[in-house]
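[step 3/7] inverse_fold.run input=structure_tokens len=184
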């Protein structure tokens, strides 16, 4: 037991045991002070630090979850936008093809319409030419007939005397009378 009491007695022999003062030996006091401070912080600050870390962890997890949801939404919107882009491109290609087809169809319709119009104009031209030719022929015939009639009348007038003239008129009147009896 002497060893147990010696340890208490030896505490009384410490020079600083009875008085208060600063220990300027940094190497001796710093590890002790630090271990005491750290021990007190761990003991009393453990719950607070744990709560702070848990809160921080929850905020980080919530931020990650929100980021993942936003990322998922952004990917979904990107896919929708890509699908709309593909659809619009297909529609544009279809409009382009249909437009070219429609333009080609309108071009052929215009060509056919122009061809038909030209045919009609050609027919009208030919009809007009035929009409004018027929009119010219009729005019020539009428002139020839008039000239022939005038020539015949001139010949008759120069050849016929009054007596022959009266006989011709009487014969013509007789023929007209016979024709009238036949028609009645």
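[step 3/7] decode complete -> sequence:
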């Amino acid at each position: 037991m002497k060893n147990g009491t010696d340890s208490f007695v030896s505490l009384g022999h410490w020079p600083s045991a009875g008085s208060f003062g600063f220990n300027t030996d940094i190497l001796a006091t710093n590890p002790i002070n630090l271990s005491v401070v750290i021990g007190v912080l761990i003991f009393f600050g453990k719950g607070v630090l744990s709560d702070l870390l848990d809160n921080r962890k929850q905020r980080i997890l919530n931020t990650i979850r929100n980021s993942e949801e936003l990322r998922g939404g952004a990917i979904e919107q990107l896919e929708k936008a890509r699908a709309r882009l593909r659809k619009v491109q297909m529609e544009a290609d279809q409009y382009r093809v249909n437009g070219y087809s429609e333009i080609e169809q309108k071009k052929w319709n215009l060509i056919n319409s122009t061809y038909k119009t030209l045919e009609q104009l050609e027919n009208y031209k030919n009809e007009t030419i035929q009409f004018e030719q027929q009119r010219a022929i009729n005019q020539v015939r009428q002139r020839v007939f008039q000239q022939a009639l005038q020539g015949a009348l001139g010949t008759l007038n120069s050849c016929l005397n009054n007596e022959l003239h009266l006989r011709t008129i009487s014969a013509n009147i007789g023929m007209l009378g016979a024709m009238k009896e036949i028609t009645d």
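[step 4/7] annotate
The chain is about 90% helix and 0% strand.
The first helix runs from residue 2 to 12.
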